[in-house]
Design goal:
Layout lengths: L10 E4 L8 E6 L7 H6 L5 E7 L4 H18 L4 E9 L8 E8 L5 H10 L4 E9 L2 E6 L12 E5 L21 H10 L6 H11 L11 E5 L6 H12 L2 E4 L6 H8 L3 H22 L5 E4 L2 H12 L26 E6 L2 H11 L5 H8 L1 H13 L6 E4 L4 H16 L2
Parallel strand pairs: 9-11, 9-12, 10-11, 12-13
Antiparallel strand pairs: 1-2, 1-4, 2-8, 3-5, 3-6, 4-5, 6-7, 7-8
The chain binds adenosine-5'-diphosphate and deoxycytidine diphosphate.
The site of adenosine-5'-diphosphate has 15 residues, from helix 6, helix 10 and helix 13.
Length: 411
């Protein structure tokens, strides 16, 4: 487990510019000459700090990280740059510790005061960086006690990681590959989020359902405003099908609450939603074809795209086990991914004129995130999704999809 005094085996990554590779470095007791990119980051024009959250309790850790992110964005928004940073052991799963780099451009000691306050929490560790000529070193920001004495550690450039560090902790923190793992997260939250108990109760009430050779199950996926609601309603009519969605209606009262939680908790909630919907699918597909509006592809694609910082290239590579369908989740017969151009999607969002979730609002400004969600959708395997161009008229999109379904099922 990461401790303030045990940094030497770790590599640090700073997302200095989201469009490029992070800057990687390690720490060493002997001085190292630094090249330009590092000198720029550690430049002596401002004050530089890093902050990491280390805590054995994963719920507490996730919440502390989210709280600090929020506090930094409020307290330091004007005169400081706040970069996502991480510390990890290369290729070691679950070794990632998330944090921030803060570059203070103010003429006052704005960030130092804020950081000293944050450091009073026992799970927060703050370091400051100093530069002398071509050397930079790190030391603890005013060590709070003699045990954690401040040791000068020199910055040493490190090779780029083969796998982007943010991919190291995805399994069971952002994406869950069986129900038990997601269930455990909500169980650990019951004291601080009472609604977790109600959600778990709803999960428990779903009887085990195994699906025999029932009617086909067709999932419609895509970013918000790509036309899922329009198409799923039309398919329901034309196929005489049952229409379901994930998260299911019974979780609607809890969705806003879990949407405000950090990824660990939020993604566990959506994962469990898929299992409840799967139970409904199991029952309904005995009677009629079932159309599902969003399912596991959405859960995994949004979770991976949120967890992975920066560029599309940082996503887990195609074929990675992180794109594997959960072993215990009902598999649909057909998954269709609706795609439209970013411009058309924006036009539809504006025409609809309704409130967007914060995440969707971010999608608009965050082209990188949208690209990662779409790419992650396409990399999920077994079942993989079939891409449908959803830019023609609703009638034409329906015909296209009916054609695909007819070819497969003669419905
Ligand atoms: N094929 C289409 N062509 C033009 N506009 C469409 C089409 N399909 C849906 N829309 C419109 O785009 C908006 C978003 O569609 P909707 O079905 O609600 O998307 P989603 O469920 O994926 O968020 C709605 O205003 C809808 O009327
Ligand atoms: N099956 C699902 C459905 C949605 N999600 C998550 C993924 C995103 O964070 C949001 C997207 O939901 P959003 O409210 O934008 O979607 P709709 O408007 O309902 O199409 O929900 C999920 O994880 N799993």
């Amino acid at each position: 487990m990461f401790r303030c005094g045990q940094l030497c085996s770790r590599v640090f990554a700073v997302e200095f510019d989201l469009r490029t590779e992070p800057l990687y470095f390690t720490l060493n007791s002997t001085p190292q000459v630094l090249h330009k990119a590092y000198q720029e980051l550690f430049g002596d024009d401002g004050k530089l700090f890093s902050l990491h959250v280390h805590c054995d309790n994963r719920i507490e850790k996730a919440q502390t990280h989210a709280e600090i992110k929020h506090q930094l964005s409020i307290a330091l928004s004007r005169d400081c740059d706040v970069f996502e940073a991480s510390s990890f052991i290369p290729d070691v799963k679950n070794s990632l510790v998330k944090g921030f780099f803060i570059r203070d451009k103010s003429t006052t000691d704005l960030s130092e005061d804020v950081l000293k306050t944050l450091q009073q929490s026992k799970s927060v560790c703050v370091f400051s960086y100093k530069r002398e000529g071509q050397y930079c070193w790190q030391e603890m920001l005013s060590p709070v006690n003699q045990v954690e004495e401040s040791v000068r550690q020199y910055i040493t450039p490190a090779a780029a990681a083969e796998h982007h560090p943010s991919t190291l902790n995805i399994r069971n923190s952002d994406v869950f590959y069986n129900m038990d793992e997601a269930y455990k997260v909500l169980k650990e939250c019951t004291d601080i989020i009472p609604e977790s108990k109600e959600v778990l109760k709803l999960v428990d009430e779903q009887l085990e359902t195994s699906r025999g050779d029932g009617f086909p199950v067709i999932v419609i996926e895509g970013l918000d405003a790509t036309g899922k609601t329009t198409l799923t309603e039309a398919l329901r009519e034309s196929l005489n099908a049952t229409l379901l969605k994930s998260p299911p209606q019974c979780l609607a009262p809890f969705r806003q609450r879990f949407d405000s939680e950090p990824p660990l908790i939020r993604r566990a909630f959506y994962a469990l939603g898929n299992y409840i919907t799967a139970a409904h699918i199991g029952k309904e597909s005995l009677r009629a074809p079932v159309i599902v509006d969003r399912f596991w592809h959405s859960t995994a694609a949004y979770a991976i795209a949120t967890a992975v910082g920066g560029r599309v290239e940082n996503l887990p590579e195609p074929g990675s086990e992180l794109y594997k369908w959960p072993e215990d989740l009902l598999k649909p017969n057909l998954v269709l991914l609706l795609t439209v151009s970013p411009e058309e999607r924006l036009r539809r969002l504006r025409d609809r004129g309704q409130d967007k979730t914060i995440e969707e609002a971010e999608l608009e400004v965050n082209q990188l995130f949208r690209l990662k969600v779409e790419e992650a959708y396409k990399r999920i395997q077994n079942p993989a999704c079939i891409i449908v161009d959803a830019s023609p008229s609703p009638q034409e999109v329906l015909q296209q999809v009916q054609h695909l379904i007819r070819n497969k099922y003669h419905l």
